[in-house]
Structure formats: C-alpha cells, structure tokens
Amino acid sequence: MLPLLLVLLLILVLFGTGFAVEALWYIAIAVLVLWVLGFFFRSGSSARWYRW
C-alpha cells in the first residue's frame, strides 16, 4: 500500500512541476513580447521606457 501511495505522490509532484514550468514559459513569452513592443514603440530616439 505504501509503494502505491509513493508512486501516486510522485505522479502528482511531476504533474504539478510540469504545469508550473509550462506556465513559466507563457509568462516569459509575454514579458518578451512586451519588451519588444516597448522597444519599437518608444517615444523619441533617446527615450527609454524601462529603468535599468
């Protein structure tokens, strides 16, 4: 019974990790798109839309 519970727990952990990693990919793509749009639509030649 214990090995079965451990396998089920492992499956749940791997499923949760896979979902989190996929969500992080979507967030990274959204940030990249916002950065590129900000780069192209900035106002003026010397204006910066970010504070780095």
UniProtKB/TrEMBL annotation:
TM segment ranges: 30-50
Domain of life: Bacteria
Keywords (A to Z) from UniProt: Membrane, Transmembrane, Transmembrane helix
Protein name stated in the entry: Hydrophobic protein
Source species of the chain: Streptomyces solicathayae
